[in-house]
Amino acid sequence: MDYPEREPDQLEGVPPPEFQARVAGHVAPLATLLERLDAGRLPGGILIHGPRGIGKATLAFELARRIFERTGDESPVHIAAQVAAGAYPNLFVMRKAARDTGKGYYTAIRVDEVRRFIEEMRMTRGRAGHRIAIVDPIDDANDSSANALLKILEEPPADTTFLLVSHRPGSLLPTIKSRCFQVALRPIADSDVRRVLERNATDPSGIDRAVSLAAGRPRRGFEAMLLTEGGALSRLQAWLADPVGAPSSVRLALADALGGERDSAELRFARDILNDWLAEAAKSAAAAGDRVRLASANELWDKAQLSLADADEYNLDMRQTLGSIFDAIRKLAQLTVPTEQR
User: Fold this and answer.
1) What mean pLDDT do residues 19-39 have?
2) What are the structural domain ranges in the chain?
3) Are 148 and 178 in contact (CB under 8 A)?
4) Whole-Å CA distances, 320 to 71, 111, 266, 304, 323
5) What angle do CA 169, 275, 323 make, to 5 degrees?
6) How many angstroms from the chain centroid is the CA of residue 166?
């Protein structure tokens, strides 16, 4: 099925969040919000944050539909159809806008769009019941548009709730975060990822591999299904499972395979996999109380982020950058090996 384009990073053939019938996982956060709704304590601002691709926007749209069902006078089927069509009068959605030329999207949510958005919300409501404004994601707001949103968050219209989706809550204005009830989401179980992929994928043959690569993020699972099976990503995962035992030729070959095309989907995936491995290394060291290994893991995280950012900005050789990171990962992994076995 072809879906209308609603967001800059929309994947072909994958339904946008407003088309998803229900969110997978995240049962407890959704229940908490619905309990507040039933108790008449729904906040004016809700910040839904967590890693990219885990279903934050899908949760926001499901919550919006549930709110409309409980506070309005229309059937769930009718509400769902209008929300998916972008035509429900009490729902306002803000994302980066398409350029006036019709080619691509603006790089940020602009202040003029926020002002129009707020003006629309202040007009007479279109239906009985609560009104919902979804900003997906709030991270795309620049300083001016974020401050414009802050003003309405400070005094939201009656019976109106703002659902702010964020991949990077640490970068938001502290005043925006302080005005919101915060809901932290985490990657979901593999069984939930599988359920999402099976519900939406036209070809089920690659689902097992996609689930293993997804790491609890349905979007990553969909991206994995667009990649050729096997190849460098599988070899990268195998190497990360034992970076000490593998010969140096393996990591050199990986750097060549992944760094050859700097804008490839495989490289983007590989960077996510490396970030996950580094984060897990830091968590493991912290849990073990190993200060030396924790300091090394944190230092390597910073070095990897800086090296990759420099490679992007200055068009440096990505193969050399990856090779350096792989070598540092091997040295970090050696800290977990008993001295006599190194």
Assistant:
1) 93
2) 17-184, 227-341
3) no
4) 57, 41, 17, 12, 5
5) 145
6) 8
- Residue 311 CA, chain-centre distance (Å), reads 23
Structure confidence by residue, pLDDT tens digits, 329-341: 999 999 986 544 4
| Residue whose pair of structure tokens reads 């992929």 in the numeric block | 197
Bridge partner list, 131: 160
Burial 296-309 (b: 16+ CB within 10 A, else e): bbeebbeebeebbe
Which residue, 149, 151, 148, 152, is CA-closest to 165?
149
**Starting from the edge strand earliest in sequence, which strands make up the sheet with 131-135, in order?**
91-94, 131-135, 160-166, 45-49, 181-184
Separation between Cα atoms, residue 212 and residue 219, nearest integer Å: 13
Largest CA distance in the chain: 75
What's the CATH number for 17-184? 3.40.50.300
pTM equals 0.79
